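Slide 14.
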Amino acid sequence: MRTTVTMDDEVHEYAAYYARARGLTLGAAISELVRKAQNAPAPTPDIRRSPNGFPMFPPSGTGGVLTTEMVKKLEEEEFDPEAFA
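Slide 15: predicted structure.
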């Protein structure tokens, strides 16, 4: 099928590099990459629970701290349940 696709410059650069490295056309490379993404296992969330069963954030490894101000800012934003479905 022939179609026109608009993509970010860095995505086009990656796809073109991928195609050249494998001796594929750009369209064939994009098709292959999409198929790989389709068949990739869904990421599993790292949900940890405290000893009393309360869900906790996983450790960030960066030493980041969740502050009261951060929580208040998020509470002020409009919640979109579709974004979390």
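Speaker note: The two ends are 32 Å apart (CA to CA).
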